[in-house]
Task: inverse folding
């Protein structure tokens, strides 16, 4: 009689150990989409990676002319480094100027502030690289860029979009 109790105890122990393993193995075999495992989801989403990459590049770095296309997507570039080709519209100071669109565009002049002095003339073609910013605030810009700009020269640009330039180069185009 003692032997029989030991066998029941061993059988119970074996069944208790096998059942959870069997249940775990069967859980991965489901065809129900709501019961998909992380592994299955990763494998399925990798196939769509190339298709969605183009959608993610919309707010990526811009390198091109200052034109209607750029201004229409301006908000997506805020905080991003861009490179623009444009014409000098107005020289405000050795550290700042406005650019206008190249060729036949209808864009408004855009303020460019550079932390170094640049010698430019109206109508010159330039390539400007810098960070796209919104809401020009003279005291903030002066502090951030360590500049001392004339308040009167910038009154008309308060709260306007602008570029905080890291590089300004003249180009051959005019």
Result:
């Amino acid at each position: 009689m003692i032997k029989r109790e030991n066998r029941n105890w061993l059988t119970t122990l074996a069944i208790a150990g096998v059942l959870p393993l069997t249940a775990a193995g069967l859980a991965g075999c489901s065809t129900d989409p709501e019961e998909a495992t992380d592994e299955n989801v990763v494998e399925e989403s990798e196939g769509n990676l190339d298709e969605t990459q183009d959608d993610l590049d919309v707010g990526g770095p811009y390198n091109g002319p200052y034109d209607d296309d750029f201004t229409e997507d301006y908000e997506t570039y805020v905080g991003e480094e861009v490179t623009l080709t444009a014409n000098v519209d107005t020289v405000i100071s050795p550290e700042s100027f406005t650019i206008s669109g190249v060729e036949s565009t209808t864009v408004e002049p855009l303020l460019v502030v550079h932390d170094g002095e640049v010698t430019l003339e109206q109508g010159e073609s330039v390539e400007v690289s810098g960070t796209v910013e919104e809401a020009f605030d003279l005291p903030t810009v002066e502090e951030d860029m360590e500049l001392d700009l004339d308040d009167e020269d910038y009154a008309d640009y308060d709260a306007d979009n602008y570029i905080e330039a890291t590089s300004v180069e003249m180009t051959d185009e005019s």
